[in-house]
Design a protein that fits this description.
This protein has helices at residues 41-48, 89-97, 117-125, 141-150, 170-181, 199-213, 232-237, 251-261, 281-302, 313-336, 342-358, 360-369, 374-415, and strands at residues 61-62, 76-82, 105-111, 130-135, 156-160, 164-166, 185-190, 218-219, 227-231, 266-276. The protein is of the alpha/beta class.
Length: 416
């Protein structure tokens, strides 16, 4: 019998750890978590049987590490992928270093930048526990996160994006949640106040903060690359982030979070917060269209929506009803010019009612916190709902042939 390959995880991904190094004992057994649930057997079999292609491990160079702060019950290192991030990186690293609890290390992965990103990191490394991991060629955020994780020796990895700024108690809240819950991963949320001006950033910050905070602390089957912490042992056990899924959007983080949730517990904690630079309207339109078209393909394989955040079944209803309201409004206006108003009027009344009811919590939140922003929030909700629906339809059309082929293959195998 051939011995198992110790360099590979259960899902076929190459191990991120050293195969000859025993797993570190992080202390006493973690308490049982009431929120924990067994994975769906159908989901587990579907995903674990799908062999992921090996990650692209490009050689990296690393600056010497500084001495770590005094040991704690759980040690934590921050990993920040950065590409041409000189405009935001300094504020990001300073916010981490100014936290109420200092990290053991801040590992910045320069993903083939052509600006002064690497020079800024070297300047920080002279007087703080900041380390530089440098790639000659860009491999995308997923590859950068994996490269940074390979250098971590702490118990916990906290991933942040280079265009975020950690709240002063971020690391403290992350460590407290790990200690009190025994979870294997903890994801944070965006602060409702963005770091950049503009109507679109203001709306997206408020929208994301509300959607990911409204349920309180809850179990989650996704993962946030912009503010997400995971036990190093769990990250390496599942093979890290799949860097073969492309460079755009958060698709690779969603896939990693789902894969992680099959055998580990991830919590979404609204008390863990970062501020974020959100894209303006034009760039945001492209980003959300591409991301949703990718997410839909993952949801088609899973056969279900996420358990929390903005990609739940309720979020889908709210998004689709917004798109239908905008379409029905256009039909009503066009029909009124030829005297064909009552059918389109009835349709508009129905879908607009569904839109208001499904988004009622968000709109009430806007009224309570920023009432003068309500008109802009209504219009932007209609607009982005239409963009996201269009992206979902495109992703469905692109992913449907693959899904049908996979089902046909399974049916043939079952018959044989």
């Amino acid at each position: 019998m051939t011995p198992p390959d110790r360099n590979r995880t259960r899902c076929g991904c190459p191990s991120l750890g050293r195969p000859d190094t025993p797993r570190k004992d992080t202390g006493a057994a973690r308490p049982a978590l009431e929120l924990a649930r067994p994975p769906n057997p159908r989901e587990s079999a579907d995903l674990l049987n799908r062999r992921l292609r090996p990650h692209d491990w490009t050689p990296v160079t690393q600056t010497p590490a500084h001495s770590s702060p005094p040991s704690r019950a759980q040690s934590l290192s921050v990993v920040i992928p950065a590409r041409n991030a000189e405009r935001t990186l300094q504020a990001c690293v300073r916010a981490v270093l100014a936290n109420s609890v200092a990290p053991d290390a801040v590992i910045v992965v320069d993903d083939g930048s052509s600006d002064r990103t690497a020079d800024l990191v070297r300047a920080f490394a002279e007087s703080s526990p900041v380390q530089l991991v440098q790639r000659a060629v860009s491999g995308g955020a997923a590859t950068a996160r994996n490269d940074g994780a390979r250098t971590v020796t702490s118990d916990i990895i906290l991933f942040l994006d280079a265009d975020t700024e950690a709240k002063p108690d971020l690391i403290e809240m992350v460590l407290e949640r790990f200690a009190s819950s025994g979870a294997d991963a903890v994801c944070g949320v965006y602060d409702p106040v963005p770091l950049n001006p503009g109507l679109a950033p203001a709306y997206k910050a408020m929208f994301d903060s509300y959607q990911f905070s409204k349920r309180g602390v809850t179990q989650y089957d996704g993962f946030s690359g912009s503010c997400g912490a995971v036990r190093t042992s769990a990250f390496r056990e599942v093979g890290g982030v799949d860097a073969t899924l492309g460079h755009s959007g958060e698709y690779e983080n969603e896939e990693f979070g789902y894969r992680l949730s099959l055998a580990h517990v991830t919590l979404l904690d609204p008390s863990v917060r970062v501020q974020h630079h959100f894209p303006q309207l034009i760039r945001g339109t492209r980003n959300y269209f591409v991301r949703v078209s990718q997410w839909v393909r993952l949801f088609m394989r899973r056969g279900q929506f996420e358990t929390a955040g903005d990609a739940t079944s309720g979020g889908a209803v709210a998004t689709i009803s917004a798109a239908l309201t905008l379409v029905a409004t256009g039909l009503f206006v066009a029909g009124s010019t030829v005297g064909f108003t009552w059918p389109t009027g009835i349709a508009l009344a129905c879908v607009s009612t569904a839109w208001m009811l499904s988004n009622g919590g968000l709109f009430c939140h806007v009224i309570r916190t920023a009432p003068t922003f309500l008109p802009a929030a209504l219009l932007l909700n209609l607009y982005f709902g239409t963009v996201i629906t269009a992206g979902a339809v495109y992703g469905l059309l692109m992913g449907l042939p693959t899904l049908l082929t996979r089902k046909a293959s399974r049916h043939g195998n079952h018959r044989t």
